[in-house]
Amino acid sequence: MKTNTKALLLSLLLLVILGHTGCSLDTFNRPNAFSSSALVGYWARTYTSNGESFSEMWKFNADKTGVYANSDESDPASLFSFNWSLSGDELVISNTGGTVRMQITNLTSDALTLVLNNQRYNYTRYVPDDSGSGGGDSGGGSGSGDNTSTNYAPSSMTNYKFYSHAYSTSYTLYFTSNYGVNSSTSYISGLSGQYKVSSVSYSKTSNNKATITVSYSTGSTTKTDKLYLTFTSYGGGTMQYEDDVMTYNFTCQYVGSSSSVEAPSSVAYKKFSLSKYTWYQFGSASGSSVTVTSSSNTTADRITATYNKTGSTTGTLIIRHTMGSGSLSSTSTYTYKLTFATSSSGTYYRTSDNRFVEDSTGSFTLE
């Protein structure tokens, strides 16, 4: 949710700066009282930003923890965890950044309305499907309901890159065969970190349907996910995660053999793009440092960057944003660990010292 997330982050920032972590919603008419147990579960909606459609989700656990996520991975706040409480109609969301109080104006078995900064957001409940059927008629692995005659789904995934971001989990897989991936560039990312792939298989089930089964170790346990794919073109389509009735976009691109891929020695005069609306344009280089302009530049915004090639197909890009001046200035550092699948594209794992920004993964181009 670009607008809602930005509003939430702005609220958190203002609360920290002003110290008003106990603000209330007294300006609202508040006749209702709602049960915490009625809120537990998944709530989702879709929205449009800059002409693109995105999905967002709140997950409220019974132990008063939760997760917010949206499918717009160019948003630094597309994924974060929180604690919550509900008293009457006042919903309190808190994390390391601060506390925000929202009003619930409607809560039924299948509908939720949240009010934040005088804006109302309507959600519907959905229930994860634990049967592994991929959501029944719309996405099961059997290929039933496939009326597409075009043979979009590849029979072999050799030298294909698969990527999908399914709320709290993202999958980056570089296939070497239908039963193997490049272990140095393939990984699963979740709230707790980044995991290496233990095993994987790809099975085409009809002209435009396929199933990926992927296993990965999360430390003490091994998790196995089934991803039910519906191809709408040769380059991707929609996916249903086995424990979720929501659909997510995926891309499936032929990238060729990785043996010829080489990470660049310099990023001078190249454009580093994370999405259509998020990019950095590098200028001349001085050693490993480069001058930078970006999609978010303002007169108060100063950006510097340092790039180092760390391996034949890997590099580290450090970008520093400085806002304000003098005693009011602050600097946030974003570290991108890059893995090149081609000479001009690949995947990244981003960390930051900005406490409002979660670690994240995604795809990039460098051209």
Task: Estimate percent helicity.
Answer: under 10%
The overall number of domains is: 3
Mean pLDDT: 76
Largest sheet: 8 strands, antiparallel, barrel
Please identify, by name, the CATH architecture of the largest domain.
Answer: Beta Barrel
Which structural class matches the secondary elements?
A: mainly beta
Intertermini distance: 29 Å
Q: SSE order in H/E notation?
A: HHEEEEEEEEEEEEEEEEEEEEEEEEE
Q: How many E-type strands?
A: 25
Low-confidence stretches: 1-7, 9-28, 129-145
User: Beta-strand percentage?
Assistant: over 45%
Radius of gyration: 22 Å
The first-level CATH class of the largest domain is given as Mainly Beta
> Number of DSSP helices?
2
Strand order of the largest sheet: 1-2-3-4-5-6-7-8
Q: Oligomer, anyone?
A: single chain
What does this molecule look like?
There is one protein chain. This protein has two helices and 25 strands. The protein is mostly beta strands and 367 residues long. It has three domains: 2-126, Lipocalin, CATH 2.40.128; 136-258; 261-366. The strands form three sheets. It has an eight-stranded antiparallel barrel. β12 and β13 (193-206) form a beta hairpin. Mean pLDDT is 76; it is low at 1-7, 9-28 and 129-145.
List keywords for this structure.
367 residues; Lipocalin; 8-stranded antiparallel barrel; 2 helices; disordered N terminus
How are the SSEs ordered, and which strands pair?
Layout: H1 2-18, H2 36-39, E1 41-49, E2 52-60, E3 65-70, E4 79-87, E5 90-95, E6 98-107, E7 111-116, E8 119-126, E9 160-166, E10 169-177, E11 180-181, E12 187-190, E13 193-206, E14 209-217, E15 222-233, E16 236-241, E17 248-254, E18 271-273, E19 279-286, E20 289-294, E21 301-309, E22 314-323, E23 330-342, E24 345-352, E25 360-366
Antiparallel strand pairs: 1-2, 1-8, 2-3, 3-4, 4-5, 5-6, 6-7, 7-8, 9-10, 9-17, 10-11, 10-12, 12-13, 13-14, 14-15, 15-16, 16-17, 18-19, 18-25, 19-20, 20-21, 21-22, 22-23, 23-24, 24-25
